[in-house]
Specification:
This protein starts with 6 loop residues before the first strand and ends in a 14-residue tail after the last helix. It is an alpha/beta fold. It is built from 9 helices and 12 strands.
Length: 310
């Protein structure tokens, strides 16, 4: 990386009533090992009442105070867009992670190295699951809490805000913003970075840039896992229908839903030696199929109205 001048990096975190999780996230950022020529600042957006940000202590991360503001309009894209506004003028590169995550000490260095090597506009990486110690065996064995991984350097059609680094210039002026109509549905990050990729900006995978997603006990159950899969399916279907029309999108979405359902049944029948694991896999696939059809019909599932974790 060119160290002839300082590269300003803003790490953005949106949060809502998760003080313990946020403290854990900030502690991991304080352990980052930055390459020379970089200056990092953390921006925290409290998606809550205006006074909530002032009531919190202002910790230091890598010797710099956390820049903390409030966005009173409840909803993930409102908070993410406020983070972008705060980062513009303060950074050359903008990163996002979630308030229920931690990162490895070399996380940022890995993102920066891949960005330079592949001349990428956006670099994204995995958010690996960290389940509670007393989680049932099916939760780790079924894979329903896992994440997709790809070889480093793989071009990707989109990215997620649980682990991403992008050029701040993408968002300046009349640049890209999160869709504020997706207030509690989730998926606004997929939608935004898909638009960025379709506009010709390069998105690259960095498999060694590790973030960890800490799951609270309230999310380690069949009900939440299946609801999550249903929400992803419903949101994906609505986004695809919005990009063309329901009539155009319907054949592909019905076919995809059918494939998920068939896969789920096969996983159930071939996995009876471990019935709870097999049921988890079947339920995940069946919920995704149901969500795809529901989303095509216009059903909206607001997963993020409820707060999990502390």
């Amino acid at each position: 990386m060119d160290t002839s001048e300082t590269t300003r990096i803003a790490v953005c975190i949106i949060t809502r009533r998760r003080p313990k999780g946020l403290a854990r996230t900030l502690a991991s950022l304080d352990r980052l090992e930055l390459p020379g020529g970089c200056r990092l600042e953390v921006i925290v957006v409290d998606n809550d009442e205006p006074d909530s940000a002032r009531e919190q202590e202002t910790p230091l991360v890598l010797g710099r105070p956390v820049h903390r503001v409030a966005e009173p309009r409840a909803g993930i894209p409102f908070a993410r867009n406020r983070a972008i506004e705060e980062a513009i003028g303060r950074s050359d590169l903008l990163a996002f992670i979630d308030d229920d995550e931690t990162v490895e000490p070399d996380w940022m260095a890995r993102l920066l190295a891949v960005r330079e090597e592949h001349d990428a506009d956006v670099v994204t990486g995995p958010a690996l699951p960290r389940l509670p110690d007393d989680s049932p065996a099916w939760a780790s064995e079924s894979g329903v809490y896992g994440c997709h991984r790809f070889p480093t350097g793989t071009s990707r059609p989109w990215a997620y805000t649980h682990n991403v680094l992008a050029r701040t210039a993408l968002f300046e002026g009349d640049g890209f913003r999160f869709d504020e109509g997706m207030r509690f549905t989730g998926g606004s990050d997929t939608e935004l970075f898909r638009r960025i990729g379709e506009a010709g900006h390069r998105i690259v995978w960095a498999d060694e840039a590790i973030a960890w997603e800490w799951y609270p006990a309230s999310r380690v159950c069949f009900r939440w896992a299946f609801s999550r899969s249903y929400r992803i399916g419903a949101t994906d279907a609505k986004m695809q229908a919005a990009r063309s029309s329901r009539l155009v999108a319907a054949p592909g979405l019905f076919w995809l839903a059918f494939r998920y359902l068939v896969r789920g049944v096969l996983r159930l029948l071939t996995g009876l030696a471990s019935p709870r694991r097999a049921f988890a896999r079947f339920g995940w696939d069946a919920a995704r199929a149901t969500g795809l059809v529901s989303g095509l019909a216009g059903v909206q599932y607001d997963e993020y109205r409820r707060i999990h974790g502390e």
